[in-house]
Amino acid sequence: MPGKTPHTNGSNPVENGINGADDVEMKDDAPNQLKGGKGKKTKEGDEEMTVVVPPSKSTKLSATPPSKDSNGDVAMDGTEETNEEDAGAPKVDPVAKAISDIKSNFPLLERAVTLFDARFSLRALRSISSIRKRLTPDILAQVIAETYQSTSPAAKSLLVALDREHVAFGKSVSNEMEIDNESKAKNGKKEPKEIIPEVDIFLGILIQIYYLDNKLNQKGAVFSAHLAERIHSLNRRTLDSLSARVYFYYSLFCEQLAPLPPSPSSPVVSIRPALLSALRTAVLRKDIDTQSTVIVLLLRNYLSTSHIAQADLLISHTKFPENAANNQVARYLYYLGRIRAIQLRYTEAHEHLTAATRKAPSSPSAAGFSQTATKLLLVVELLMGDIPDRATFRIPSLERALQPYLQLVQAVRVGLLGEFENVIRQHGDTFRRDGTYTLILRLRQNVIKTGIRMMSLSYSRISLRDICIRLKLESEESAEYIVAKAIRDGVIEASLDRERGFMKSKEVGDVYATREPGEAFHDRIRACLALHDESVKAMRFPMNQHRLELKNAQEAREREREMAKEIQDGDLDEDDLGGEFEGM
């Protein structure tokens, strides 16, 4: 159409469906006077009315009117301007941010000391996971230089551990990232502030983590020994949660030093006196965190060198604290289950490992512990003569890790000795790495028993020669011995005829006529009651709440005595009380 601008395909801003922001003239369609008398007639000769199109939301929200460029286009607010502002915004220095995150934990440690509340120390320790990836010697040295005075011996020892002895003290990265600005004096200098020992140990733990992540195990072991001696000499209850973490990393460093366990000359053997001394001190000081952590570390230490008797002796002479953290309880139950499984006490091992898998954290970072505990639990169930539930192998976090054990369960379930030996030959390295190889070798007799039980259910009478051929045994005498032992253990209901050389099965009765269903039901009820008791113990109640309840009850009894005395004296009547006295 003539006089109409060509379509620009969205290059111009659109307001209410019309390109451009100019007024639109309505011809021959609008009256000369608006309704209600609000409009005015136009000048003489003008027979048209101008209607202004209302602005869009983006224009209404902006404080300044839209500006036109040289081509008459209107600049849209929030597009080019915001991009320019984002481009010009100052970027946060990652080094300064890491330093600020580390120093933000110091007020938490001070509050833990002031209020004598370990929860603030635990909050500081939980923040390590977010700081861990950004730890460098320069960042740690800068934090030490900004926190301590140049004459502090603790700062010098920490800087020597980082090989940064010549760092200048007192220099800050940026004024915006300052935390202790309020401590400045009027003359512009910072007042000297005493640094609590908890800050020293917290920075020492960060140095331990830096050594561990960079595999500086020898330096980490030496520094950890010095840090443990410092904690032992301080004797502060507010260091309990921090000291437990120090001993944990100390043990990890020694486990990774050559020669590796189970060598008798491994450094894990030399650390045992230090751990036992720490356990004695923690018991005397009633340090629950350090006590639970060191007991778990000692059990792990003994198991790494196959000193099962010493581990069992430690369990019998120590009592694991009831109020320990859930993660330490899960570890303790796992090591206790492993020791009981090695000692052929499969029922106790099954109980401990089941509790360990239930208490295992559900976070993805703890998937390794859940997989390890489940693997050992499956082997123990097979040694007990039970077949694990197939749903266990379908859990997404366990499906891939339990694939070799699924094949092992299938071989044991059908009682095929050849398939069982093939699985061991194929996945032997995996079983050795998991620490279950020696326990799996014990399953050979279970496979044979399972095969005999399957044959006793399938045949009413079967010769010993056929049993020897099907189970691939060496001779008929060994088959006779195995069948006799299975009958004595109650695995099968059968009788053995040695003269004719066959096994005769008895008729299978109703299982519900036996005590087996009642015993299984009793086990489930006992597990549910134990879980309920543990849940009640884990609940946190307000401090001294019982004293407030006793006080309120005592006041109520005193009021009742006063009212009863006044009624007896005639000062009050039951009608004056409004019936309240009857309910007391």
From TrEMBL:
Cellular component, GO, one term: proteasome regulatory particle, lid subcomplex
Transmembrane listed as a keyword: no
Pfam families: PCI, Rpn3_C, TPR_PSMD3_N
GO BP, one annotated term: ubiquitin-dependent protein catabolic process
SMART domains linked to this entry: PAM, PINT
Family membership noted in the UniProt record: Belongs to the proteasome subunit S3 family.
InterPro entries documented for this protein: CSN3, PCI_dom, PSMD3_C, TPR_PSMD3_N, WH_DNA-bd_sf
Keyword check for Electron transport: no
Annotated Polar residues bias: 1-14, 56-69
PROSITE patterns: PCI
Residue ranges with Acidic residues bias: 78-87, 569-584
Biased composition (Basic and acidic residues): 554-568
Domain PCI as annotated: residue spans: 330-510
Residues covered by region (Disordered): 1-91, 554-584
Name the UniProt record assigns to this protein: PCI domain-containing protein
An MF annotation (GO) of this entry: enzyme regulator activity
